[in-house]
Model the fold of this input.
Amino acid sequence: MTLQATSAQINGRPNVVHLLGNLIQFKAVGAATGNAYSLVEVTTAPGAGTPPHFQKEDDEAFFVLEGSYEFMHNGQTIKGVPGTYVFIKRGEPHAFRNTGTAPAKMLIINSPGGLHENFFLEAGDPIAVGAGFPAPAAPDMPRLGAAAARYGIEFLPPQA
Done:
């Protein structure tokens, strides 16, 4: 199955969701890769990112395409500029945020496929392709927490 990045849906599901200041566009889903991996393109608003967390059941890799990110990985800080690659093994604490003044963009691969994409779909809000960032709003923490628990993601307290 070939996915078209500009389609509004993949297998009847949204192609783009907004979650925590990130626009997540599905490029390859687990169903198309024999659940070997999922691939998303993420555009992150300035200052946005993810809180510290870890996954119990999937590995994650980040490849920065545009802008400036800061990654926290196992208590260390990694500056992410175009071309930066960061690999996170399951169980390793990590987070990221856009440190620039413009949107930043990266690719994220999760292996095996299915888990993270389903978390994004449950926790995120569908938006139209090319719609841009919605108005800032507080996240629905009960929905976010419930989806995280279903897909083996555990949020950690913020680092001091």
Remarks:
- Confidence is low (pLDDT under 50) at residues 1-8.
- The longest helix spans residues 141-150.
